[in-house]
Known about the structure:
With 285 residues, this protein is mainly β. The chain has one domain (36-280). The chain has helices spanning 36-45, 167-179; strands spanning 49-57, 65-78, 82-95, 100-112, 117-126, 129-140, 146-152, 157-160, 184-189, 199-205, 225-233, 247-254, 259-265, 270-280. It has a 14-stranded antiparallel β-sheet with strand order 8-7-6-5-4-3-2-1-14-13-12-11-10-9. Helix 1 (36-45) crosses helix 2 (167-179). The longest helix is centred in the middle third of the chain and has 13 residues, at 167-179.
Amino acid sequence: xxxxxxxxxxxxxxxxxxxxxxxxxxxxxxxxxxxxxxxxxxxxxxxxxxxxxxxxxxxxxxxxxxxxxxxxxxxxxxxxxxxxxxxxxxxxxxxxxxxxxxxxxxxxxxxxxxxxxxxxxxxxxxxxxxxxxxxxxxxxxxxxxxxxxxxxxxxxxxxxxxxxxxxxxxxxxxxxxxxxxxxxxxxxxxxxxxxxxxxxxxxxxxxxxxxxxxxxxxxxxxxxxxxxxxxxxxxxxxxxxxxxxxxxxxxxxxxxxxxxxxxxxxxxxxxxxxxxxxxxxxxxx
Length: 285
């Protein structure tokens, strides 16, 4: 069974508001054409919260996978000039012969709200043994270009292309894009879950939906929402004619930055996540 390059929500988590236009692709960049006022409003709408998800098998697609069970807890804390996030996930995949493979990951970041810096750390174990460990820091210039310096693997550096977005900036712009009626964003994204550097992403955004009168969880009260599907590609693969993403993530985002439904599609199979609990975290400022 192929191991996915990353198992994270933050990138999904994966885009932008230009009120003068209602449709069409968006120019990549740290603000993606969004005014300072719109970006500031989007950042202010993000709420510090903890979300606990149940994970189940979505589709198996003749891959030999019989079941998936797991849980994920995702925290977003407001750290004044940045966001501190942590994602802890346990997932057990069972094949048709009854063999089980358990993967546990612990992923943490600190991201500056101005898209200038990301500290990241990921430890992933498979069947109790460490299978991946990545950590380091990325520094970005105002145009989104920059450098990743890894602590693990030690001494490795990667360049970031112009227009690179960090995970929470991506989320803010996704919500603003949906609110403004936009449908598409293509931009490089770096989240620190791999030592392979940034990936190219394409995000398809569905229509924005007004708030429901009877939300399933209290934090959804009075919040409009939109569905997004983010496709992740190897950097530069599109230039060589590649059309199949390495994996995809689907979410329903509310305008406060909370996602209550997730689909992680790894090609051979997909995993669905449903929020069971949502709670506010105290602001750090």
